[in-house]
Design a protein that fits this description.
Structural class of chain B: mainly alpha
Helix content of chain A: over 70%
Distance between the termini of chain B: 31 Å
Number of strands of chain A: 1
Number of domains of chain A: 1
Order of helices and strands of chain B: EHHHHHHHHHHHHHH
Structural class of chain A: mainly alpha
Strand content of chain A: under 5%
Number of domains of chain B: 1
Radius of gyration of chain A: 23 Å
Oligomer: heterodimer
CATH class of chain A: Mainly Alpha
Order of helices and strands of chain A: HHHEHHHHHHHHHH
Largest interface: A-B, 106 and 121 residues
Number of strands of chain B: 1
Chain lengths: ~290, ~280
Amino acid sequence: MISTMPTVTPARANPQRNRGNVMPGFGLSLGVTVFSLSLIVLLPTAAAILKSSSLGWSRFWASVSTPRALASYRLSFGGALLAALINLVLGTLVAWVLVRYRFPGRRLLDALVDLPFALPTAVAGIALTVIYGPHGWLGAPLAALGIRAAYTRVGVVIALTFIGLPFVVRTVQPVLAGLGENDAEWEEAAASLGAGRWQTFRRVLLPVLTPAALTGFAMAFARGVGEYGSVIFIAGNMPLRTEIAPLLIVIKLQEFDDAQATAIAVTMLAASFALLLAIQCLQRRSERWGQR
Amino acid sequence: MSTAGITVRAIPGAADPAWARWLLTGAVVLFLAVFLLLPLAVVFGTALASGLHAYLGSLRDPETQAAIRLTLLAAGIAVPLNAAFGLAGAWLIGKFEFPGKRLVTGLIELPLSISPVVAGLMIVLLFGAQGWWGPWLAAHNLSVVFAVPGIVLATIFVTFPYVARELAPALAAAGNDEEEAALTLGASGWQVLFRVTLPKVKWALLYGVILCNARAMGEFGAVSVVSGHIRGLTDTMPLQIEALYDDYQFTAAFAVASLLVLLALASLIIKVWLESREGSQ
């Protein structure tokens, strides 16, 4: 449920297309896939893009660059970026410990890492709001320290960190495990050549981990930018301050301002496309590492 | 959770210093326990705070019952459809090389990158009162947006990729040898699919369906945009949670939430079980 689909190569992939591939069903599966993709994915996307282009450039620009919209992008993109950075560090650490050390409860924690994927976002939203609220189990101690978590931007980052946690863990884990199985000699060789522990980590492990960790980072970022359910409960939703971009789309729709809602949505859609491309490029790089 | 008894894997050269092992393991265990387990504890704690009677009572509320039925209906339509589409997509990607394969793979994954709210909006733009087909639908007395069909469509959109992305790598990895043998012996394409291929990849298929179902039943953003929030009619379980929460009916909101937590935990348990089966094969 984690990584984007790896570049799937069929068994006995023939570079000269499918010469010699006797498997049936190419036409049927192509037909069903093109049909379902067109109907379910392409048609709605085209509707959004056409609707926004019917606005004309000046109205489109005016719609997507209001101070309120700009503030909402800053929060959605900035919050997602910060949360993804936190996850880059914490996720790598979690993967490191889960792969390299053995301790009681390890398998349970390993399974639990997927919880943010499996838990409906609205459930995560209300649970986090109660925990980090002014009287919550963690909110009250934080308030005593002068940190207000719920109903501030801090709360937004907490929710986005929760949602994005599994991505980095699940992309880094297989790479670390692969190192453990095959390439322990790398570390050994580096150590025997007199490399210090830190040098070994920086020169041997880090270059291998980086593409995978960055893939997870980009996925967590992409997910955070568009996230809605887990954020709106804890955010406070004050225009210009704690209002995320997806919420602004919902509000504009409720005001029957379809035009502005669509303009903002298409802006976010463009960001989704760009991030998807970036993720696919990163994925290819980290796969290349995996094949070494 | 105790961190006692940490042992390093028997990897020569991977033996980190004991203090680092203990420190890192302790930090990670504490972090995961606080960050992941606490939300589960809060859901059940709040749901049961007023006693079991109040908990069960709030689940018997007619609007909540309607929301549960609607969630089951939406998932009941979306999951089988997407399982069929996903099987076709996975067969195409997993068994063949063709020009544009990367594009098809990317498009199948696209719904994962699109904000659920944007997905909902796109359905409104097609079927809403001011949408492409809005006037036609209105003339024929059909409603999609602010009605059950819109909720089903939104659910299909957001759960579209799940089966294909689990199944495609499994199909590719399983190879074609048995299939080719069956074809040589005169089996038809459908016989190969149902008698040879699907038995080989049934766990990946099941896993994809489980993920698809978990997302379908928990979807919030996309469904929220198209539902219209008519309580008892177009509220799914996650929307009912929001409505109850906004009404300060915390016990009831968390009672409904606890059902979805149980679904999430069941999905995770099945995942672990499937992985252990795959590992033992």
